[in-house]
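INTERNAL AUDIT FORM
Audit reference: QA-55
Scope: verify that the stored structure record matches its stored sequence.
Auditor: D.O.
Record contents follow.
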Amino acid sequence: MNDTLKMEGHSTEIVPMTWGKEESNIYFNLIGLYVKNMSEMESRCEISKIYNNYFVTVNRKETTGDKELQYIIENLYSNHIPFEKPDAYVVHNNVGYAIEHFQISQYQRTHKKGDLGKIAASAKQNREKLHDDRRLNLNPSIQNLSESLKNTLSEHMRSEEVYKSNVKAENQGISDCKLIFVIEDASDQAAYVEKFDLSPRNPLLFDGIADAILSYEGKLWAVIYIGGNEKEKSIEGYTVAELKAMKENGKLLDMQKFRTMHAEDERIISKDDEAKDEHTVTIKINDRMFFRE
């Protein structure tokens, strides 16, 4: 048996020469291992998890005008290839796009264990370890969102060269490699509004958040933002060059004029019974308060 195996979208190539029974067994074992590894990588891929867990729509109203980035956003789910450091990549028009995903949130962060939203989720999953009922006020705010982004950007930018070099090594024919961060807002209600206007705005346009991104100009090519609620999320993004142009033209939004839709978010996790858990959200519209259990 003489044959050549090529995996579409990957550089892996196995070219067997002369085949006997032992060689055939090795061949098919390799195929099985390869498929298993790719399947496991796909299941671990944070990009795939977003699309599998939420109904994701493309926001075409408040997003990039760059044709390259538009293509990446529109085809992210179908075209991304799961990878390790970065989380995925896309090759388009002989250019590689290193795609690294991370989460941020509007919840208050703690020193060691991440934000209070993650702590609440962990307490629910491990309630048998709780000694007492756990009461948490998540203190949602845009300032928390901004600080979360700054900290996580700094952490991931340390691996910028690694992300790019790994994608180049996997796709040796590409002419260039650009870095894109996919920023997932893990807040239960990722809606940021003005006092007298409840139309949510893209947080990438807030001056404080855009400034954090612009501090990596020349290294980071673009950012994609995914945010929404517990069932649906929208996806949009901008190149760093676009954000810079908007800053220079005074088109960015004053972050201080906006607030989170959820003014307060309090959770009580019972140590004994999930049915006894409580979740109270306070929504502030103008100067009136509305409570929802």
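Auditor finding: record pair retrieved intact. The chain has two domains: 1-44, 45-106+141-260.
Action required: none
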